[in-house]
Amino acid sequence: MLNRKKLGKRKLTSLLSTPLLLGGIAVAAPIAVATPASAAVHGCGFHQINTYSISSTCHYGPGEQRIKIRCTDGINGNTYTVYGPWKQWYQNSVAACGAPQRTSAKFLDTQVRN
Q1: Other CB atoms closer than 10 Å to residue 56's CB: what's the count?
Q2: What is the longest distance spanned by two Cα atoms in the chain?
Q3: What is the pLDDT of residues 76-106, one digit of tens each?
Q4: pLDDT tens digits for range 7-54
Q5: Distance between CA atoms of 97 and 74, rounded to whole angstroms?
Q6: Which of 4, 7, 62, 67 sits in a 20 to 30 Å window from 108, CA-based?
């Protein structure tokens, strides 16, 4: 065992506090790593406005979001990707295909950034 008289009060306190410090670091490390992921916007959904445009909205978190859709030309079958503008998490981002009389839109993704 430790002899209290040989060890100074300061050294004994240091030895006893080391396990507490290491335990605190072990608990805090996963929390520190998880924080940035939870800071992104989340709770996102989309709404098909009509055959050629779609909107997205995210309900929680700081940051921005935008919609990404695939447009298909009904005449020649060509496809292309359209992005909506970056919007705050509580606003709608809308993307529309060109030539609405001949294109159709399909939801691909809601992109997020801090």
Answers
A1: 25
A2: 92
A3: 999 999 999 999 989 999 999 998 899 999 9
A4: 566 565 565 565 554 455 454 444 444 444 556 889 999 999 999 999
A5: 12
A6: 62
